[in-house]
Amino acid sequence: MEFWGVEVKPGEPLKVKPEVFRLIHISQAALGEIKDGKGPKCVPIHLKVGDKKYVIGTLSAEDRPQLMFDLVFEREFELSHDWKDGSIYFAGYIADDDSRYPFTLVYDMFTLITSSYSVLRIC
Amino acid sequence: MEFWGVEVKPGEPLKVKPEVFRLIHISQAALGEIKDGKGPKCVPIHLKVGDKKYVIGTLSAEDRPQLMFDLVFEREFELSHDWKDGSIYFAGYIADDDSRYPFTLVYDMFTLITSSYSVLRIC
Amino acid sequence: MEFWGVEVKPGEPLKVKPEVFRLIHISQAALGEIKDGKGPKCVPIHLKVGDKKYVIGTLSAEDRPQLMFDLVFEREFELSHDWKDGSIYFAGYIADDDSRYPFTLVYDMFTLITSSYSVLRIC
Amino acid sequence: MEFWGVEVKPGEPLKVKPEVFRLIHISQAALGEIKDGKGPKCVPIHLKVGDKKYVIGTLSAEDRPQLMFDLVFEREFELSHDWKDGSIYFAGYIADDDSRYPFTLVYDMFTLITSSYSVLRIC
Amino acid sequence: MEFWGVEVKPGEPLKVKPEVFRLIHISQAALGEIKDGKGPKCVPIHLKVGDKKYVIGTLSAEDRPQLMFDLVFEREFELSHDWKDGSIYFAGYIADDDSRYPFTLVYDMFTLITSSYSVLRIC
Questions:
Q1: Which of B49, B52, B55 lies at the smallest CB-CB distance from C33?
Q2: What stretch of H or E contains E107?
Q3: Among A81, D71, E43, E95, which is most buried by a count of CB atoms within 10 Å?
């Protein structure tokens, strides 16, 4: 596992594509720093996966400057938001795709057993 | 694992059925965008599993525009809500049913061992 | 894993007993629908395990109509609440008890190996 | 896994020591029942691990009567709080220490293999 | 797994580096005790990983004295905050890096098998 984080700037939707056999887990979104006194009241966060669009939450400088998620992506997705004056930071982590695990383990053991054939010298 | 998300439109309860040996994990619900100025104050979210009905939370445009869950479904369920003017988006992920795992692993190893019989040539 | 949910009616504490080698994971509690205008302000939720009593949270129609947990039960427990006019819905999931896993795996492998004795015909 | 819960009474810090190879996972803290009308406004929760002290959150009867954690302890820790008129209930679960798992599995397999030597009668 | 916690003092950014094959999981941040009556209104929390900077949340003495995370670090990171009058406590746990697991298991089994060669005396 490793840290994952992106900055989504105002008016710049960001496409993210996980590597093969890797999952991106988004844990949270947070408003960036407010520069000119007053922060935004209502910032919807948009997610696009394939041709489907979702609202996944709404940030607010006073009431909800950050927001937790428990979302997992194995394919390309696009993040965007409606705040014109600042960035939103998404963070989480990258993990191996567990659904590959049984196959990987068996494959590794097979490789090990056959490659260690001469070491074990069974019969 | 893979991303899962649905839009539940006003007045249209949505039935969802996980595939065999797959689990749907619902992580969150969020109000869709508010079109005509003022959002809803109190939107109960309903869940139906078999013949049993549950309230699993209440959304509110000002105070709780989104809501986290940690719910898992291995069989058909139905989602609905009481907001007349917009959609609610549910998101989460699909995972393999872990309870199958030990069986699967042993089965895979059995297959591997018997199929590699000639390679290993024990005795 | 499979969905788990119960309705706890007013004045009716509910005893729940997980099956052997199964765990009940409670993820949340939510106030049921409010019928006569105004919902309750302060509804403590009580948990009893063995002879010990705990308060695990307080619901409120306006501020906290639902509440997340991350609690696991391997033995009998009792849920109750102080709302006189409605039900509280608890939801979560049932999972296999992981602490059995290593034993189960080894046991399964032993069974597999001995039962496949004639197939492998070692010596 | 099994349920874990403690009551921390006013003015009585509580030391908790996990068993060997067992982890205590604290999922939440909740204010006990308020007896004389008005609950506390600000109750810091203190944690001591070794000689280090931490504040891990602040409860409040009106705004935050409960609070979620995701903390894990493999060694002794001490919980205390500043509420003079009531108890705080901590809850969560006890789990096996996963970091022992690979060793345990291999050890169990070794035991199994050597003890089943005569059953398998390899050569 | 084991408990992890740090105090980040005002004006003193803290660098943290996980050990090799170990992950630091940050679960929460909490304002330390408020000494002189009134706590801070808005304390952004900053995270630096490599040369990238993120805002991961905002604490507030009245509304959000603590905050949950689900962040994982396999490499050095730096935590800092904007509160001039007190410390912020971060807590969570340290875990083995799961992505090493399949390799470790296979490696352990290899070691076991070759070291137990004389015990098993296959042929």
A1: B55
A2: helix E101-115
A3: A81
Q: Residue A11 to residues A42, A79, B123, C44, E55: CA-CA distances in angstroms?
A: 16, 11, 69, 45, 19
Can you tell me the distance from the alpha carbon of A5 to that of C61, in angstroms, rounded to the nearest whole number?
Answer: 36
- Is D56 strand, coil or helix? strand
pLDDT digits (tens, 9 = 90+) for C17-66: 999 999 999 999 999 987 766 789 899 999 999 999 999 999 999 999 99
**Taking phi first (over 0 means left), then psi (-120 to 50 degrees means alpha), and beta for anything else, what does residue C50 get?**
left
Per-residue confidence at A118, pLDDT binned at 50, 70, 90? very low
Q: In terms of CA atoms, which chain A residue is nearest residue E118?
A: A120
- How many contacts (CB atoms, under 8 Å) link C and D? 93
Contacts of D15 (CB under 8 A, 6+ apart): D76, D77, D78
The Cα–Cα gap between D28 and D30 comes to 7
- The pLDDT tens digits of the residues spanning E22-49 come to 999 999 999 998 776 678 989 999 999 9
CATH, range E2-98: 2.60.120.340
What's phi and psi for C116, nearest 5 deg?
-100, 15
The answer, for E98 touching chain D at a CB cutoff of 8 Å, is no
Distance (Å, rounded) from C-alpha A92 to C-alpha B68? 16
Nearest Cα of chain E lies from the Cα of A77 at a distance, in angstroms, of 20
Q: Domain map of chain A by residue range? A: 2-98
